[in-house]
Structure formats: C-alpha cells, structure tokens
Amino acid sequence: MSTTLSAAAAAPGVSGAPAGAPGAPGPSAGREPGPALRGAASVGGPGRGLLTMGVEEEFLLVDRLTRAPTGRAPQVIAATGGTLGPQLQQEFFTSQVEVCTRPTSDISRLRAELAWLRGTLSRSAAEEGCLLVASGTSAIAPEEPLEVTLDPRYRRMADRYTRVLGDLRQVVCGCHIHVGVPDRARALDLANRMRPWLPVLQALAANSPFDRGADSGYASWRAVEHAQWPGVGPAPVLDEARYEHTVDTLVRTGRLLDRRMVYWYARPSEHVPTLEIRVADVNADIDVVVLLAALVRGLAAALAADADAGLPQPPPAGSRALRTAHHLAALNGLEGDGLDVRSGRRVPAWDLVAALLERAAPALEAAGDLPMAATVLGRLRVHGGGAHRQREAHRRLGGLHGVVDTLAAATAATPGTDTGMGTGTDTK
Length: 428
Hints:
Helix content is 41%, strand content 12%. It contains 14 helices and eleven strands.
C-alpha cells in the first residue's frame, strides 16, 4: 500500500539528485511532502523536453539473526536522524519502510538517488539490528503476527479487510514508477494505451519466488497475494468523466475505503500530476529498477507521441486476456511463456520483452537511455531475473537464510558491486 510519491516540487533545470550530493537541493527534514512534478510533464535544463519520472520502493526489515520480518520501522526511521526527510515513510506494517525519489528527467541522477536512499537506510537498519531487504515477499516466516503501523487509515483498513490480511503473517513489497503528465486526461489516455505492455514489465520485475519458508512455484508470489485486495488489477478503459464516476462509486458503495485504494496497475495519482505504474516487485538489483523506470518513461513518451499525432487508442484488450497475461507474468517471470494480448498467442517472455524494447526504443534513444536498457536486458538474459537469481542463491547456498543475506547485500550495494544477486554493472 504505497503512499503518494513524496518529492519536492520540480523546478525548471532541477532534477532529483540526492540531498547532499553535488548540485542537489538541501535536506528536506521536517518539511511536509511536497507535490512531485507540479503541473508539468517535462523539465528544462539538460533534460529539456523529457518526461520526468520518480520511483517508490517498499522494503522489508528483517532481524539480523533470524532473517524474519521484524517490526522496527519506527526505530530505523528515527535512526536516520531526519536525513531523508519526507522521502522516507512508514508503510502498512512496522516491518516495512518506503522511500521515494524526487522527480527527475535524468536516469543517472535517478540511479544515484536510489543508491543514496538505499545506502542511508541500510546503515540505519544495521544500527537497529536488522537488514534492509528488497524482495516482493519474505523468504522466512515471521515468528509472530505482524504489527500494523499506528496510522488511523492503516488501522481502518486492517479492521475492514481482515479476510485479506488473514493471520497477519504475510507482507508484500512493490516498486511503483511515476511519470509526469500535464493533467489527468493525459494520464488516463496513457494508462489505456499502456495496458497491453504492463504484463511484460511485471515479468521483468518478478522477484518473489519464496514465501514464508517455501518456494511458491511463482516468479512473483507478491502479485498473487496483492491481487486479493480490492482495487488491484488491470485498469478499466476510462476517460476522465467515467474515471471520476467509477472511483466515486467504488468508495460510496464501500468497495474501497477511499480513493487512494484504487490500486489498478496503471492509475493517475490522487495527489500529484503523474501516471503511476504498479505492477513491479521491489528488486534488490538497482539496475533492474533503473531499467524499469527508463522503460516506463520511454513507453509513455512513445505512446504520448501517438496521442499527440491524433492516433486513436488501440482496441482494448479483453479483461480475460489481460488477467491471463498478468498471471503468466507472475508465474513465469522471464522464463517460459507470456501472453501477447494483441494477438492472443502464448509466446516466449523474451519475445515480448523484445517487442516492448522496440516500441520504446525511439524515446529511449532520444533520452540517451537505450544503451543502458540494452546492456541490462542483455545481462538479465544471461543471468536471469530476480526470481531466478533468488532460486540460484538458494541452490548455491543451501538455505533461505543465505537467500536473505544475498538480497540484503545486493540491496545495500554501492554501484558496480557484484553481490551474486544483481547484474554487477554500473550503468551511470
């Protein structure tokens, strides 16, 4: 359950480098979260004309000894001393934390900020006897029921959706990609055009094969568990008026607690002018996160160009085909088949990745991101995605404790560090 992209307002010529980095804005400790990308889809300066982007990452906190989820988020947040300001937030359970980047049009600055946020938080977690882990699910079962964060909204959700929460021993962590849009109408148009491509992004991000002590059989078990919540799934094809009516009806009839519970795989943010893509597991490999952001931004730019040229939206894919495509993405990740929702045929997942790269390539090239995307995809082709590498770590190390340790090392790794879980490449 992600909160909004908490970021400082994007001003012309200012992109999102970490606080304290050369040329970056100063720390924002004590300030209320500011709106990201206020009213603008692009920024001036070196990235002039490029769509802005931002990333939210949810992380697990696990005990250093047991490697099971531990409810130390309040202590870990306090240990940062306010360094991360509103870019660090609580999550639904006290065994989770979330970080949010500032908006930027520069992929290298996005990567640097992600590394800074992860490194700062990993060190604070270590001070409190725990590890910061980027995985969609917990490989080790919690020793006792998880504690819901002391937040009125989260407590209301826990009271209303007890069936979904079960015995309070399941925790999932996602990664959400935002791209700047000028208004809600553009966000919805892009969401409609992006529907066929989202299962491919989901497959690229699959990073949760283990769940509470066992192999789930899925590449992304997080996707399966998260889909139990109301409001999760492919977005319906809506214009602005129908969107407002649909969301208002869902809240008024009690299906959703509030508008923030619209967890569709592509949605306009309720608080900032962005389109938010919500299909990805959080990944220990920072290169995968940067790749996802570049692909989402590139795909959005290519589809926005279609809209600006007056090209109609493609015929909407049927809900059954989309759900099948997302199911195969969760099941297989990058191994095995996916569903091409445009043709209705099952094809190798990597064929779908190639088609996505081809569709986004002109915008990726214009942004200077194509070499990075091709390099990281090539290494994923050789070494496998996050789910495959978790299973390989389990095979190599002989237990799930080793998988957690490898994930934690990769999560905290500095650029260029080969931990055995990431691709081991510095793409800055």
